[in-house]
Specification:
The complex is a heterodimer of chains A (about 250) and B (about 290). Chain A contains nine helices and ten strands. In chain A, the strands form two sheets. Chain A has a six-stranded mixed sheet, sandwiched between helices. In chain A, α3 packs parallel to α5. The radius of gyration of chain A is 18 Å and the shape is globular. Chain B is mostly helical and about 290 residues long. Helix content of chain B is about 75%, strand content about 0%. Chain B contains eleven helices and two strands; from the N terminus they run ααααββααααααα. In chain B, strands 1-2 form a two-stranded antiparallel ribbon. Chain B is globular and about 60 Å long. Classes of the chains: A alpha/beta (about 250), B mainly alpha (about 290). The interface between A and B is medium-sized, with 28 and 17 residues.
Chain lengths: ~250, ~290
């Protein structure tokens, strides 16, 4: 999948702290253009910290982040957005007092050239044009998630970071949002996502990366990994008797 | 009839208070900075206007054309340096820093301009008024200040709701981090908000200098308190609430003075305290806004 050039995103030996607490230990990963790269792991594994650090909201202690071979480790989030990294943050974080359309307009204020526009987002979510003048705070969780994705898309990212899309949403809504991924990939967006629901991640991803207490425990193509290996990487079990009933990790 | 007149005077004075208060409200609403030097900055604007008039010989009324842009630039620079540095250390630090700024300004003014009071001389305009019969008269100057205040609030409202920068200011006020993720440099946006706040406080300081006299200590002794009272009565974050708050404060003062001239200030602060006790979110505020 990856050609001769550098991967779209390369994370090298990233260590990150919150005060004294070390949230990430020497985490590395390579995301090739066109990938759907899923970070999985339990609560507190460091998934969101990794996303925030890649987006520039959190400063790593050591390590480097390269976008298309260029070091962006010291850049502020707004510079990284201009470079093509957009994060849909955990909890959606819409501007609650702004309307749906204003949220999208803020998202497009530093937009790169590309296929995404407000119009395109309105075509992707056909309910949105009718409610563009509504305040974002008045929307349901699923609708807010859609606006948050749209707000990131209108910046025309090369790399779209999706942090815990399914958090607090009904399964039907989650399926619908994941159903959009193929359409996003068609426009040339590469997706790096964080997901607690492992089965959802395995379905959507071309590569998975498992974190456990800040350390990488597994990395590879979901097709090449057995459910047992994923499960033991997820929970940190070194060896375990095969149990037919534990084929799938809890969501 | 004298009561009607007191209320009319109160409403008009309320415009001036709203002009003082809107910058304070904006800075708190956007960057959570309570600018304790707000009143002193208004006084500085009065002195700068005095200097501009002396040097350029423009009529006092037109001094704002120079002073307001100067203050906008000053606001941007001060926000990007001193206030941002304080913000990076926590919101409480901004209280200390702006308090320090207030003390420095006040003593600097005392040192260089003495404690004597000054005013901006606008000639006959200061005493001109429209007599409506009975005991009711409307001073042209106060009416003009009221019109300017409403125009400033309308302009600010339009800027915040309809312009690209206004939208960014509201976005940053809602969620600074999310705004960064959308490509907004929040420090620059803070700078713009501070520039607007300083421009309005300059206008208020000049208006006050024409209407009354100012001295180095009046900034914290009166102007800051009036601005605070107007903001609290009206409710934070609402421009029209600020106007309503200013008017209520003005009316309370004038009606208080009507009862007993010594009670003017007391009446204003009584209303302030009653609103704080009964409706702490202010007249227009919502109870649980962040």
């Amino acid at each position: 999948m990856s050609g001769a050039g550098p991967p779209l995103l390369e994370v090298r030996g990233l260590t990150a702290h919150y005060g004294q607490f070390c949230a990430l230990f020497e985490v590395s990963c390579r995301v090739a253009a066109g990938d759907v790269y899923a970070i999985i792991g339990a609560n507190g594994a460091g998934k969101s910290t990794l996303m925030r650090t890649i987006a520039g909201l959190h400063r790593p202690t050591t390590g480097a982040i390269l976008l298309d071979g260029a070091d962006v480790t010291g850049q502020r989030p707004e510079r990284r957005l201009a470079g093509g990294i957009a994060l849909v943050p955990e909890g959606r974080r819409l501007f609650g007092s702004l309307t749906v359309e204003e949220n999208l307009l803020v998202g497009s204020s530093r937009a790169r050239q590309g296929p995404w526009s407000l119009q395109r987002v309105y075509e992707l979510f056909d309910w949105m044009p009718g409610r563009r003048a509504q305040r974002a705070a008045a929307l349901s969780g699923g609708e807010q998630q859609a606006v948050a994705i749209g707000r990131a898309l209108v910046s025309n990212p090369r790399l779209l970071l999706l942090d815990e899309l399914s958090l607090g949403l009904a399964p039907v809504v989650v399926r619908r949002i994941y159903g959009l991924l193929p359409e996003l990939l068609q426009t040339g967006v590469t997706v790096l996502l964080v997901e607690q629901d492992v089965s959802q991640a395995l379905q959507a991803a071309s590569r998975i990366h498992c974190l456990l207490e800040g350390r990488t425990t597994l990395e590879g193509s979901p097709r090449g990994l057995s459910a047992e290996r994923i499960e033991s990487a997820y929970f940190g079990l070194t060896s375990r008797a095969k149990d037919p009933s534990s084929g799938e990790a809890p969501g | 009839m004298s009561w009607v007149n007191a209320i009319i005077q109160g409403v008009l004075t309320g415009g001036l208070y709203a002009l003082f208060a809107c910058g304070l409200s904006l800075m708190f609403g956007v960057m959570k900075v309570i600018n304790l030097a707000h009143g002193d900055l208004a006084v500085v604007a009065g002195y700068v206007a005095l200097g501009v008039i002396t040097v350029t010989h423009v009529p006092a009324v037109w001094s704002f054309a120079l002073v307001v842009p100067i203050f906008a630039v000053l606001g941007y620079v001060l926000q990007r340096t001193l206030i941002q540095a304080a913000l990076d250390r926590g919101v409480l630090t901004t209280l200390l820093v702006t308090f320090g700024l207030s003390v420095v300004i006040e003593n600097g003014l005392l040192r260089f301009f003495s404690a004597n009071s000054h005013s901006l001389d606008i000639g006959s305009l200061v005493s001109g008024s429209l007599h409506l019969g009975g005991q009711i008269s409307i001073a042209y100057l106060l009416a003009a200040i009221f019109v300017v205040a409403v125009a400033v609030l309308l302009g600010l409202q339009y800027f915040l709701s309809a312009s690209k920068h206004g939208r960014l200011i509201r976005a940053v006020a809602d969620d600074r981090e999310a705004a960064q993720l959308c490509g907004a440099d929040y420090r620059h946006v803070f700078g713009i908000a501070a520039a607007i706040a300083f421009a309005t406080v300059a206008l208020a300081g000049i208006a006050f200098g024409m209407y009354s006299s100012f001295d180095p200590t009046i900034g914290t002794d009166q102007l800051l308190l009036f601005a605070f009272a107007a903001v609290v009565i009206g409710g934070l974050g609402s421009l029209w609430g600020t106007l309503a708050g200013g008017i209520i404060l003005g009316v309370a003062q004038e009606v208080g003075a009507q009862i007993n001239p010594a009670d003017q200030q007391l009446a204003g602060y009584m209303v302030f305290i009653i609103v704080l006790a009964v409706r702490p979110q202010g007249l227009t505020g919502e109870r649980s806004t962040a």
